[in-house]
Amino acid sequence: MSTIIGIDLGTSTTEAAVIREGKPVMIVNLDNEVIIPSAVGIDDRGNWVVGERARAQFLLSPENTAIEVKRKIGTGEKIMLGKQSYTPVALSAKLLEYVKTYVSESLDEEITRAVISVPAYFDDIQRQETVKAGMTAGLQVERIINEPTAAALSYGLEHMEEESHILVYDLGGGTFDVTLLEMFDGVLEVKASGGDNKLGGRDFDEKLMEWLAGRFMEKHGVELRKNPYAMVKLKEEAERCKKALSTQDSYHVLVPMIVEKGGQPLALDELVTRKQFEEMTQELIERTHQPIDIVLADSGILPAEIDRIILVGGSTRMPLVAEDIKNYLNMDPSKAVNPDYAVAQGAAIQAGIIQGSIRQEESLVMTDVNPYTLGIRARDAMTDDRMSVVIPRNVTIPTTRSHIYYTSGDYQTMANIEVYQGESAIASSNHFLGDFVVHGIPAKKAGKEKINVQFSYNVNGMLEVRASILSTGAEASIEINMMDEKKDERIDVSGWKDSSLAKQFRTAIRRAERVLKNTEVQADHFLETALEERLYFLKKALVTEDLDAAEEAEEELIDMLDMLND
Asked: Of 49, 52, 460, 535, which is the most exposed, with the fewest CB atoms less than 10 Å away?
């Protein structure tokens, strides 16, 4: 059986590990290092550069280099390298491709399978894009594992007999996660997870950069923030200063020629003390408190019931982190795991369990939770855009939950079930996961027919949503693979008229387009969205010359149009 590796795909750095003789072992890269910078770029000859070479290039050619790509996963933003734009998925794939290359060379076998870690608070879209990046890099992603859970696995493998509540505090380069787990009899059970995907080491760097740029402006009247090359040098020095202040009380920041003024070079020259740095970043540390409170509340565990706090992520090396945790939770954090390696090692342990290279009697049984609320869009007396919760956040998976809904319109014969993920009470403010239509509802007055909607969520990230009409037993369903990329890639359907099938379906399309111009339909977001979706699928079928799909899409579209006319 081919080897499965564990990968910690981080904002600032990336690491890989593998199981050898039942234990996780870190893998060195082509530069003979375990830790590689999560940097990707294109050199002046048009070749891709990754890792340490890309990080070095960033200082000289920031416009051709990307760092901290993980922060943009799932946002839809593009990243410019020179004059070409790239998706975060494409650039993450380049980084994973490099990992695949050096691991294959190190292990002397072609590696094609991996377990990849993600922040516990990553949503479905971010997880799917991480999987897509792995697939693009030529890796079969066997499992996505939450970073705090991976770190707890790394700890738990050496403490199989322990019974305890463990709080994993994971402050990395770009994200913050906190997870509460319980260990007992070789079982590692996640109780609750929370976090902040916009809080990490880079935010501490930026606070220091702002302070240094402000001081430079006061002294020289030059705004460094308007000079991209000066800001790259400033970022590099701010990171160096932050790391130095983790072990010493002060650091002398000196960049001899950061910019010119009147043809003369100017130096950035400042003494920064640890106290100053901690004062300017105090509010960032305090932002970790709310996620901790939410996780404790969701898990039902009191601070006094926590037995061990594990620190993960390079940013936890800052002394202020341990000091704040001690003050906030009245407990000294443990140094039981390596904060830089624990996540990759835990991912490798999960890989070993899947592969069977860790014997069952020597492995942990692990349960996890869904980090976000799952539900559907529903109508009530106030709105047609209410998030109706079916599975609350932090419910142990696998789980199955159901809810009874009533028809909302007189004589409606179909219902569009829209599935969302997120914490907003407004459905459309959350992440849309997919939808499907239930046909054959008996035509009665509003509220007279019941529809049972059932969510089943398993450990492999597969969400099945099933809806059934209680009076007839008719049902429909959709499967949403939280581990898979989106199946429906949007395409340009404006050229549907050029299809050889266009004439056959033109009447239905024109009818739908006229209805969409109706002000009453436009005022009903639920109906407008559902109708636009049906129309899109019909046009897509025409563009792709798929007669069967076109006939099916036309049937659904006409059913909806008929319902609107009733």
From this structure: 460
DSSP secondary structure string, 461-510? Answer: SEEEEEEEETTT--EEEEEEETTS--S------TTGGGSTTHHHHHHHHH
Q: Crossing angle, helix 88-107 and helix 124-136, to 10 degrees?
A: 50
pTM score, two decimals? Answer: 0.74
Q: Residues 6 or more apart from 350 whose CB is under 8 A from it?
A: 6, 115, 143, 145, 150, 153, 366
Rounded to an integer, the average pLDDT of 158-168 is: 83
Looking at the DSSP bridge assignments, the partners of residue 65 are 41
Distance CA 559, CA 565 (A): 10
453 and 527 assigned to the same domain: no
d(CA 277, CA 272): 7
Q: In the numeric block, which tokens belong to residue 304? A: 């006094």
Q: Is the pLDDT of residue 371 over 90?
A: no
Check which CATH number belongs to the domain holding 378 and give it: 2.60.34.10
CA 55 to chain centre: 23
Two structure tokens written together for 68? 């901290």
In terms of domains, do 297 and 274 share one? no
Same domain for 453 and 415, yes or no, is: yes
Q: Are 419 and 533 in contact (CB under 8 A)?
A: no
What is the token pair recorded at 417? 């079930």
Strand partners, 249: none
Question: Above pLDDT 70, what percent of the chain?
Answer: 95
pLDDT at 529: 66
In one-letter notation, the amino acid at residue 189 is: E
Q: What are phi and psi of 112, to 5 degrees?
A: -130, 0
Looking at the fold, whether 137 and 36 belong to one and the same domain comes out as: yes
Please list, residue by residue across 120-135, b when 16 or more beta carbons sit within 10 angstroms of its beta carbon and e when fewer do: bbbbbbbbbbbbbbbb
Q: What angle is formed at CA 163 by the lines to CA 162 and CA 168, rounded to 5 degrees?
A: 90
248 vs 23: CA distance, rounded Å: 35
Output the CA angle 237-67-343, nearest 5 degrees: 95
Place of tokens 């990553």: 122
d(CA 534, CA 418): 13
**Which residues, listed in sequence order, are joined to residue 4 by a DSSP beta bridge?**
113
| Dist. CA 323–CA 331, nearest whole Å | 10
Assess whether 529 and 539 both reside in one domain. Answer: yes
Question: How much is the pLDDT for 363?
Answer: 60
Distances (CA, A) of 474 to 62, 307, 436, 466, 556: 58, 51, 14, 11, 16
Tell me what the mean pLDDT of segment 48-76 comes to.
Answer: 93
pLDDT, mean over the chain: 89
- Cα separation, 180 vs 172, whole angstroms: 17
For strands 79-81 and 84-86, give the pairing. Answer: antiparallel
Model confidence at 388, pLDDT cuts 50, 70, 90, reads very high
155 domain residue, yes or no? yes
For residue 486, the model assigns a pLDDT of 44
Q: Which two tokens stand for residue 86?
A: 């790239």
> Once rounded to an integer, what is the mean pLDDT over residues 125-153?
90
- CA dist 250 and 23 (Å) reads 40
